[in-house]
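Consortium newsletter contribution from the modelling node. Members have asked for a concrete example of what our holo predictions look like. Here is one, prepared for the heme C complex that several groups have been discussing at recent meetings.
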Amino acid sequence: MSERSKTQTFLRIRWGRWLAASSLLIGALLYLYYLYPQQGTGPRQPIYFSHRVHAGVKQINCRFCHPFVDRSRNAGIPAVEKCFFCHEYIIPQHPQIVKEREHYESNTPVPWVQVYYVPDYVKFNHQPHILWGRLDCTNCHGPVQNMDRLQPVEFQMGFCIDCHQQKNAQIDCWLACHH
Ligand code: HEC
Ligand code: HEC
Ligand code: HEC
Ligand code: HEC
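And here is the predicted structure:
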């Protein structure tokens, strides 16, 4: 074999391996994509709950599911019962709803993964923001109604201060916001 055809064979083998490896990789990605269609946004939730479907497409009001937002510190995550308000009748055979029903019947809350955080030393209260500040949920949480899975955010202090300055809310934060 001449030097040149040796190199060619070598290149062909390398090329072949590369192709094989990359098609394996693409195959694996496609497989994962179909297996976990919501992968790649926020943390995976125990039930594939989609804000896009509920708050976006079906236009269910945020407060139907998060009713305490103008009355307390926390907006509240809906209890399982609330899902069956609708899912008793709507797609009750859907595998995710069947899973939800197991929680309902065994009276165990769904262990939803928390997505939005403030550092431990910050106390945040929804009430003044919604009642007096008249802010929209999207001001802080982004376009939740377009997201299948919520993207995690840790709110840093700059986030609070910037908006407080813009809106002339108090920035005397050391007393008001920290424990
Ligand atoms: C001024 C910013 C701001 C606005 C406006 C806001 N949120 Fe929040 N929200 C936060 C922050 C900060 C946290 C994290 C709080 C924590 O970790 O203690 C949070 C957490 C939450 C949580 C999870 C924890 C909980 O409170 O139960 C829900 C649900 C929520 N928000 C819903 C809403 C809804 C619905 C609206 C609109 C009606 C809204 N938020 C408006 C800043 C905001
Ligand atoms: C006010 C009514 C209502 C409530 C409350 C409700 N849903 Fe739904 N949900 C719907 C509707 C409508 C659909 C769309 C059904 C369809 O596509 O035919 C849906 C679809 C779904 C789907 C399938 C999503 C998809 O990919 O198509 C899941 C899973 C689901 N809901 C879970 C939940 C969970 C979990 C809760 C409770 C936290 C809940 N839902 C509360 C009305 C509701
Ligand atoms: C049908 C019920 C339903 C509706 C309507 C709904 N949510 Fe939720 N929301 C949930 C459930 C269930 C969770 C917990 C699972 C998750 O994080 O996706 C949640 C979680 C959240 C969280 C994150 C809480 C955390 O873990 O930190 C925020 C913020 C939030 N919702 C805001 C909104 C906003 C804003 C709207 C309106 C645009 C809205 N939600 C409409 C059911 C609902
Ligand atoms: C998008 C704008 C915005 C963001 C972000 C924001 N705030 Fe506010 N905040 C306001 C407005 C507006 C008010 C209401 C001021 C009023 O009219 O009393 C308010 C009120 C408050 C109050 C009550 C003050 C009082 O007068 O009693 C506290 C405490 C507070 N915010 C803390 C925080 C913290 C902590 C964060 C960050 C995690 C934060 N805020 C993020 C706009 C914002």
